[in-house]
Amino acid sequence: MKVGILSVGQVPREVLPELVQGLPKIFPDTACSVIKETLPIPADAFVKKRNQYNSSLILNQIKIFTARNTAFDRVLGVIDVDVFASGLNYVFGEAYMPGKAALISLCRLKPDFYGETAGFDVLVMRALKEAVHELGHTLGLRHCEKAFCVMHFSNSILDTDKKQSLFCGQDYLQALLAINTLR
Ligand SMILES: [Zn+2]
Ligand SMILES: [Zn+2]
Predict the structure, then answer these.
(1) Global pTM exceeds 0.85
(2) Which residues of the chain register pLDDT less than 50?
(3) Which of 100, 122, 152, 167 could lock 118 by a disulfide, CB 3.0 to 4.6 Å apart?
């Protein structure tokens, strides 16, 4: 699976190479690179009364990007603003299931957001887990009831911290089968 990582608006660039390194260790037969281009945050995604951005509208722009850039099997957008999805106060990310486009937001993954003193490594680990989770959805994987599995739904950052960056055996097999069909 060829994964392109796309900045959506201004993001801390140093996180992106960490994802490039981390994702191929988790997904079988996968190569990852940072896309040079930056996608602007669509202006209509901002909802003033919530002071948040609509993740579905941003995800749709990533989908349009994937249609123009066929070098990648999947494009993972990375954004650094607070995002929500219909019916949810906030989300860590969103993806088409199945599909080619996924999005994660670093905003609520940053230790600072919770007044924590933890550093860059914690942000990277959380970002990797959410990136694997959303890319898992693009391969057709659903939420997993096992709390340690990366496909477990994160209701809060506590769930993200509790789960691993890895799939359970069953989900790994499903991811492997889905990746094999890409060739
Ligand atoms: Zn999910
Ligand atoms: Zn699982």
Answers:
(1) yes
(2) none
(3) 122
